[in-house]
Specification:
single chain, about 850 residues, alpha/beta, 5-stranded parallel β-sheet, 27 strands, globular
Length: about 850
């Protein structure tokens, strides 16, 4: 379809939008009548909630469309190619949206996101001048340090492998980690050049859909058509997106093609592009590089997460950087005798990020040319330019997710952060209930944090941690104080403070700061405050001393009546002060891993408490846990204290996670399970044995039908004769079972995650995976005697990840392991060599350990 002028295209887009708005408004009137009718008749035939939610989304869509019409009518936009392209996107957006929302309710949300992105682009166009070089790819430094293995693996398993359909590979990682460079190595590999009829590379940053289609067509056309490029370009300028799709499809049909879309933005709506790419026939490949997995309509066959460089590869890249070009003469090259210190400094400051390593290398090379000795240069590592470049990475985050990223500045560098702690501190600071848990996944998807241990623990690279501190100081009033006096500047008013102590005594001032919301202590265990010091924090909601080495807790902490979160995990505190009972608004009390702490009978006074973490505490009287009607989490309580000290279990309406410790052979498990069955919302249960003694028989465990997550940590003579039928996650730790556990575990129909750590002492394990239809993740760890894993009936198609760690006698793997793409094995060098030579490692990542 051809358009004669931009005015005509604008008119058509506006008419389509107005028609769509009228249709949505008519549907809304009909929907409101329907909802009223259902409420009056109480008919269960349809979900009123779903219909209401759909109506709300449609209302948002109408409002966004009205704004787009107003923006297109704005004379400030003027004329220009970029406006032309955006208007074409508007036309296609209306067509696709009308089609999808008529059929699928689930498609309303991505369609709404697409509408908002187009609106942003139109608004941006009104503020900026038209650019003729939008999205052009920048020259890349051809440093391939650390990418050789990745190139070889991806060529073998994703690019050159035998698969007749078109497959998609997503290279994911933070800015500066080498996504584009890896894609270049794949794209320009000689075997790739020889294999594909057409290769297309396109950086899609800030491009509209129409621009992407046009640039793809320009690169795909035959060389003999070069003389017709001008007429082709004119034809494409006048075409709408649907015509361009058909044109691209026609050019690619019957060809084996490789297309790389570099630097894909978040939530870009790629349906139009995918529809234009033929899927049938020849082994074509689509490679996408992005910092995120959150791209609409993309379901990659594999997501390759870019990894940070280890110490040796970091050093190799550093040497390559400082020695490149002619700036350095031979006498300025790095001396071998300083290599150890250089590696330590590089690891400490650059943390394996190629961007940081190159920036630091270039800076030091220039300074060395000025005659400064290498020993002095070690003290002048400056990450300022790296953080400036990563500022753009930070701005890629959604505005609503940025506060979560800024919150990372509160925690220690290179620490592993618990999901539950992130959530609880967010809520304690005033955030909404489910926001952190929902959007922390966005930080993982967008490569700002790494996920550890099945979405329960996170880690942030130290460079990004420095960026979070920098932005938190600028945007939310973070102040960092150090005992060595090297303090960071702060904004006024100060809302958050991190105090970093050394082992030297640090005397804190009694500075009145009524605005402070959170206070975190890192480092040593020495501090000196007067009782009046704590009275100055009238609005303090969060106080965290985790891993501080604290020995005594001031009694005056009880004066912080606004406190919602108190973190005392992993210290040396001997006794909890009685005055803590005054903290009536406290929601989280974490006193776990303070060995043999004496806890007075004050917990019941904290009626707002929702999460209580204990372990190996001394209680002169049984804790009145049943008085805490808001309690959602309780870990860990002694089995004796639980079974015999609690009477009103039915009052624990909200308890969802429970950990019970010190179970032994004398524990009456039947009585325990009978009491647990009264907890109607209990979903997560952890049972721990007492030191190295055997746990009791757990045969009545199956009565806890609502359990979804279960961990058994302790010596078991045998497994229970039945498990809860709704169980989705199971961990067996230190069970040391003599019989193969798989015959029983295979009967759990909803099991998704299974972990066996030191759980079985036999030599052979038989997995009949056809009986575990829902299993997605399986981890076998520290099975010291295991020599053979036998798989019958093939692996279940649902299995996405298999990890085998520290099984030193397991030297072979079954043939069906090949079908599991997420296969990871941590073993010795000798066994790793045998596995590789057997040809079984095509999809396997092997990590070597010492025997």
């Amino acid at each position: 379809m051809m358009m004669n002028s931009l005015v005509e295209q604008r008119s058509m887009a506006e008419a389509l939008i107005l028609s769509m708005m009228q249709k949505l408004e008519r549907r809304q009137e009909s929907s409101n009548c329907w909802i009223t009718c259902m409420l009056l008749t109480c008919s269960p035939e349809y979900s009123v909630g779903e219909r209401k939610l759909k109506a709300e989304k449609e209302t948002e869509m109408i409002n966004e469309l009205r704004m787009i019409v107003d923006i297109m009518r704005d004379q400030k936009l003027g004329e220009g190619r970029r406006l032309n392209y955006l208007v074409c996107d508007v036309v296609e957006m209306v067509r696709v949206t009308l089609d999808t929302i008529n059929k699928y309710f689930s498609e309303i949300h991505p369609a709404l996101q697409w509408i908002r992105e187009i609106k942003k682009s139109l608004l941006k166009l009104g503020m900026e001048t038209d650019s003729g070089n939008v999205g052009e790819d920048e020259d890349e430094d051809e440093d391939v340090v650390g990418l050789v293995d990745a190139v070889e693996k991806l060529l073998r398993t994703r690019i050159l492998h035998e698969e007749t359909r078109r497959s998609t590979l997503l290279l994911k990682g933070m800015s500066g980690i080498g996504k584009t460079l890896l894609a270049r190595q794949l794209y320009n590999h000689s075997d790739v050049v020889a294999r594909f009829d057409r290769r297309v590379w396109l950086c899609v940053t800030d491009l509209t859909i129409k621009e992407i289609l046009m640039k793809l067509i320009q690169q795909v056309v035959e060389s003999e058509e070069l003389e017709r490029r001008d007429s082709l370009l004119e034809k494409m300028e006048r075409a709408d997106n649907r015509s361009l799709q058909q044109m691209l499809h026609r050019y690619l049909k019957g060809m084996r093609y490789l297309i790389v879309l570099d630097d894909m933005p978040k939530r870009m709506y790629l349906t139009s592009i995918l529809e234009a790419l033929p899927r049938e026939g020849r082994e074509s490949r689509l490679v996408i590089t992005s910092h995120t997995t959150n791209i609409n309509s993309i379901y990659p066959d594999e997501v390759y997460d870019m990894e940070f460089l280890d110490s040796n590869k970091s050093w190799q890249l550093f040497l390559q950087t400082i020695n490149c070009g002619n700036e350095l003469k031979n006498e300025y090259k790095f001396p071998k005798e300083l290599e150890k210190k250089g590696k330590e400094m590089l690891t400490k400051y650059c943390c394996g990020l190629p961007l940081a390593i190159k920036e630091v290398g270039k800076q030091l090379a220039k300074k060395r040319c000025l005659g400064i000795e290498w020993e002095e240069l070690f003290e002048s590592f400056d990450l300022g330019s790296t953080l400036e470049k990563l500022d753009l990475f930070y701005h890629k985050l959604d505005e609503k997710v940025k506060p979560l990223f800024l919150q990372m500045a509160f925690y220690k560098e290179n620490t592993t952060m618990r999901q539950e702690k992130l959530d609880q501190i967010w809520v304690a600071a005033g955030g909404s209930e489910n926001f952190a848990k929902y959007h922390s996944k966005d930080l993982v998807d967008d490569s700002f944090i790494e996920c550890k241990d099945k979405d329960t623990r996170y880690h942030m690279n130290a460079i990004l941690h420095k960026l979070s501190i920098k932005k938190a100081e600028e945007e939310i009033g973070l102040e960092i104080l150090r005992s060595n006096g090297n303090n960071r500047p702060y904004q006024s008013p100060r809302l958050h403070r991190v105090i970093i102590c050394s082992r030297d005594k640090f005397n804190y001032s009694t500075d009145q700061d009524k605005h402070l919301v959170s206070l975190f202590f890192h480092g040593g265990g020495y501090f000196d405050t007067s009782p009046s010091y704590w009275k100055s924090f009238e609005l303090l909601k969060i106080l965290d001393w985790e891993d501080f080495g604290l020995k005594n807790l001031p009694e005056s902490i009880g004066t912080l009546i606004k406190l919602r979160y108190l973190g005392l995990r992993n210290n040396h505190i001997q006794e909890l002060p009685n005055l803590l009972g005054r903290l009536k608004e406290l929601q989280v009390l974490d006193i776990a891993q303070n060995f043999m702490m004496e806890v007075p009978d004050i917990i019941w006074e904290m009626r707002s408490l929702r999460h209580l973490y204990l372990s190996h505490v001394i209680c002169r009287k049984p804790l009145k846990i049943d008085a805490l009607q808001n309690l959602e989490t309780l870990t860990y309580i002694s089995v004796d204290n639980w079974t015999y000290g609690l009477s009103g279990l039915k009052m624990l309406y909200q308890l969802r996670k429970l950990g019970i410790e010190e179970m032994n052979a004398n524990t009456d498990a039947s009585k325990l399970f009978a009491s647990l069955a009264r907890l109607r919302n209990l979903k997560n249960l952890i049972l721990k044995g007492f030191r190295f003694r055997s746990m009791p028989c757990l045969d009545n465990l199956g009565i806890l039908q609502k359990l979804q997550t279960l961990k058994l940590d302790g010596l078991l003579a045998r497994l229970p004769n039945s498990f809860p039928s709704n169980l989705e996650s199971l961990k067996l730790v230190n069970s040391c079972l003599e019989e193969d556990p798989m015959p029983l575990l295979e009967k759990l129909p909803k099991l998704k995650h299974l972990k066996l750590r030191n759980a079985y002492i036999g030599q052979e394990m038989v997995i009949v995976c056809g009986y575990i239809p829902s299993l997605e993740l399986m981890c076998i760890e520290e099975l010291w005697n295991l020599r053979n894993v036998r798989v019958e009936n093939g692996l279940a198609l649902s299995l996405k990840k298999l990890e085998i760690k520290n099984c030193p006698n397991l030297e072979t793997l079954p043939e069906s392991i090949r079908h599991v793409r997420g296969l990871k094995m941590v073993t010795t060098k000798i066994i790793a060599t045998k596995i590789r030579r057997s040809g079984m490692s095509s999809n396997m990542r092997v990590v070597d350990i010492n025997p």
